[in-house]
Amino acid sequence: MNGTHTILASAWLAMAGGLFGLSFRIVRRAALVRPALGNRGLKRARALSEGVFFARIEPLLRHTAAWMGDLHVPRLRTSIARDLRRSGDYLGLCEDELLAMSLLSGISFAIVMAFITSALQLSQLCVVSALVLGAMLPVFRVKAVASARASSVTRSLPGVIELAAMCMGAGLDFPRALRRIVESAADSSQAIIEELRRVLQELDLGHTRRAAMTAFSERVPSDEVRELVNSVVQSEEKGTPLARVLTIQARTLRLRRSVAAEETASEAALMLIGPMSLIFLCVIALLLGPVVLRVMTGGLVSS
User: Which CA distances in Å does 210 have to 157, 190, 203, 229?
Assistant: First the structure.
């Protein structure tokens, strides 16, 4: 028993020493510079103004991210950068900051679970599970935001395409039509408006229409966006009037949405068969239950 206690005490001391050394190294190293320009700077400023908790942990996050820059994980960084782009630069985070957030989240979950495990005398595997879960939560959050953003863009795309086609039919070219839509938008924080603004910014910087639209399809990986980008690129290459192409594309997207809605409605009817059957059985039980009980207890015979 003494040997076991000695091993456990040594393990806890080693862990505490490692955390102290990590904290000391993080504090000594200069923090990452807070983004102030571009879409990432706008998202960071909005997150700091709206989120009180994020505003408090953001300095620690930048200090930890400076230390995470030493990790040589190129594949993981590439995957994180792709997810952050698709999420619309969530909270204005970079790859190192998301890794730092995962580290801090995992340590926080592990500490809380360690106290719970000690109080309830649970297995130490719960601490490891909490560490892994806490480390994965920020990544899952970014992926969920990216998925929700792609769905929002897909829903808003037919209306935006029709507006662009109407503007081009009135005499505007494609960039001016997009600019008109962005400037007249009621909510500038919509995902589709932010993406169109990014396309216009890239066009203003000298990128070709093909490059700007291709980057749009990479940020929003949905079939509808890919079809729109392919239509715009092919129209530019073949000289087809873009307004007519956009009109056809908008009609196709609306038809696809109506077909998808009909399929969802038919699937919903099939999914309701199970609950309706249970409700029907419950009604039958309520109606026939008293009669069955009286028969089983001999109530009907005695009367």
Answer: 18, 23, 10, 8
Separation between Cα atoms, residue 112 and residue 100, nearest integer Å: 18
Contact 235, 245 (CB under 8 A): yes
Q: Name, in order, each residue with C-beta under 8 angstroms of 301's C-beta and a sequence gap of 6 or more.
A: none
Q: Which two tokens stand for residue 36?
A: 């102030």
In order of start, what are the domains of the chain with their CATH numbers? 14-145 (no CATH), 149-264 (1.20.81)
DSSP state of 119: H
- Of the candidates 84, 101, 92, which has an alpha carbon nearest to the alpha carbon of residue 36? 92
Both tokens of 174, joined, read: 């494609």
Q: What is the pTM of this model?
A: 0.73
Kindly report the three-state secondary structure assignment for every residue of 59-86.
HHHHHHHHHHCCCCCHHHHHHHHHHHHH
Phi, psi of 150 (to 5 degrees): -65, -40
The predicted-structure confidence for 107-161, as pLDDT tens digits, reads as follows 888 888 888 888 887 777 888 888 888 889 999 999 999 999 988 888 888 888 8
